[in-house]
Design a protein that fits this description.
Radius of gyration: 20 Å
Number of strands: 12
Distance between the termini: 5 Å
Strand content: 15-25%
Order of helices and strands: EHEEEHEHHHEEHEHHHHEEHEE
Shape: globular
């Protein structure tokens, strides 16, 4: 029995610049943190060495990887050529909520199968292969930030170079500043899941053809670099304004990123005392993140009492093998 674990992520600024149609020309950057909410995958040798058993929201028992319905399981198990295995998936948060769950799943699965075959791999290799699977092999119109956030974990700055290399750098700040950042972030569930591929597909097309959208994303990149500098100067309150400005820009990049319900929740949060916020993930639903000074947090919670709050802490471990026997 082997169990792997990969964290979900919260992106603060720069999302969209990690899409190939943008960073291959202009370069991109993202600042994000992983959180202590995880996806877990457990692998065990199957009794029947000629079958593959998969248990997630469905159960599949097949004799060959080509018969698998789950696209990521199918691709990864085909690549590894693994048989005679049973894999079970569990998660703290459902998919489609804007926390990078699909990429966390892919990263955890790769880490699990390498360990199952007795190999140790670096976080960079796992992230790079997860990108290759999701973007190139499966053709999903997504970026690279989620795979790297799940693989490395922690509060980090990611630079996406035109040649494809990704620089991964930790954010250095005082412990008291880190604790203030963690305490000042509140997250609320809108009650809606989203189809990230549909929204990101349009955003990808726009970033390949619209100068207006390209310039907006370049602005987001500069804001991300500025936020990194402010964090390392221990000016944590800069996050509020950055979230607010980046959310306004993000909404302009594709249809469906926001809607009247999300706009209403956002406005109520700001009026109650949040200094900024954004919808996490591609848009259309999922979790709303707010930066809220501690003295205003009760007011914000009361204003958004019709929504479920997700309490969380920052993670610093990235993908890992947490059990072997």
């Amino acid at each position: 029995m082997i169990i792997s674990r990969a964290p979900f992520r919260v992106s603060f600024c720069g999302g969209g610049s990690d899409i190939p149609s943008f960073y291959e020309t202009y370069g991109g950057c993202v600042l994000s943190t992983s959180i202590r909410k995880y996806i877990f995958l457990a692998a065990n040798q199957a009794f029947n060495k000629d079958t593959i058993t998969l248990k997630y929201s469905q159960t599949e028992i097949v004799s060959d990887a080509s018969e698998i319905q789950h696209r990521i399981f199918k691709q990864v198990l085909t690549d590894f050529g693994t048989k005679g295995i049973e894999i079970t998936s569990m998660a703290d948060i459902p998919a489609g909520t804007g926390l990078g769950s699909s990429s966390s799943f892919t990263v955890a699965l790769l880490k699990l199968l390498y360990a199952y075959h007795g190999e140790s791999v670096s976080s960079y290799k796992v992230a790079k292969e997860a990108c290759e699977i999701e973007i190139n092999k499966l053709g999903n119109p997504i970026g690279k930030q989620d795979q790297f956030a799940a693989a490395f974990g922690g509060l980090r700055y990611y630079e996406f170079e035109p040649g494809g290399f990704v620089k991964v750098e930790p954010i250095i700040m005082k412990r008291t500043s880190f604790q203030k950042l963690e305490r000042s972030c509140l997250m609320f569930y809108t009650g809606k899941i989203h189809d990230a591929n549909a929204i990101l597909g349009e955003e990808t097309k726009n970033l390949a053809s619209s100068n207006e959208k390209i310039n907006a994303t370049r602005t987001l990149c500069q804001m991300t670099r500025d936020l990194r500098e402010q964090f390392e100067l221990n000016n944590i309150d800069a996050l509020g304004e950055t979230l607010n400005r980046s959310w306004e820009i993000k909404k302009s990049l594709a249809r469906g990123i926001s809607n009247p319900m999300i706009d209403d929740v956002y406005e109520r949060g700001i009026k109650a005392g949040a200094t900024g916020g954004k919808l996490l993930g591609a848009g259309g639903g999922g979790f709303l993140l707010f930066y809220v000074p501690e003295e205003k947090q009760q007011s914000v919670r009361e204003a958004l009492s019709d929504l479920s709050e997700l309490t969380f802490e920052f993670d610093n471990s990235g993908v890992s093998i947490i059990f072997t026997e």
